[in-house]
Amino acid sequence: MKFIVFGLGHFGKALAIRLTELGHEVIGIDNDMKKVEKFKDKITHTVCLNATDRDAVGSLPLKDANAVIVAIGEDEAASLMTTAVLKQFDIKRILTRAVSDLQKTVLEAMKIDEFIMPEEESAERLAVRLVNLNIVDSFKISENYSIIETKVPEQYVGKTLAEANFTNEFKVIILTTIKTNEVESKGVKKTIKEASGIATSGTRLEANDLLVIFGEMENINKLLN
Prior knowledge:
By secondary structure, the chain is an alpha/beta fold. 31% of the residues lie in helices and 31% in strands.
C-alpha cells in the first residue's frame, strides 16, 4: 500500500516510520529540510515542500495513495490549509490531525470525517488501522501478539463462533463481541459500544457487531482479507 504523510513532527515521523517498517511505500513530507534529511533512511521517501502550495502538492502521486495523512499538529492554520489544498484533488482517503474542538468543527465543515487524535491514538495503532480498513482499533501487547477490534467480515454474518471456527482456521481467539448503537443527546449523535460478555462457541455474529480478536497480526490479517 502507498501512504503520504504531511508533517514529520513527533507523531507524523513515528507513523511514517512504522508504516515503512510494515513494508508499505511512504512519502514523508515536511517544510523543514533538517527533518527531511534526518528521516530519509527510515522512511521510503522524504520530500521538503510547502504543503499549502497547491502546485507543489499537486506534483505528488496523490491519486496513487491509499491514504493521505495530515499529521501537522503544532500549526493549526497550516494543518487546515493543507487539508483544504488536498480537498481539491481526487484522493481516496484523507485523515487529518485535530488538536482542538474548533479545528475539528472546521474539518467537519470541510467534509473530513476521519480524524487523528494523537493524545488518544498512538502511531502504532493508527498504522494498523490505515493498513486494514476493517480494523476499528488495536492494541499491541507484545512483539508478536495484538488485540484488535474489527467489523465482522461479511462472510461470517449469521454464523456462530463454532461454525466460523476461527481458532482452528486462523489460530486466533475471539474474546468478545461488541454491539454498537447510535444515540442522540441534545442534538449530538454518539455511538455507544457495549461488550456482550465473554464469547462462547454459541455466540452468533450479527452484521453490525464488532469482534475483539487476540492473535498474531499475520493470522488476523488472513482472517480479514
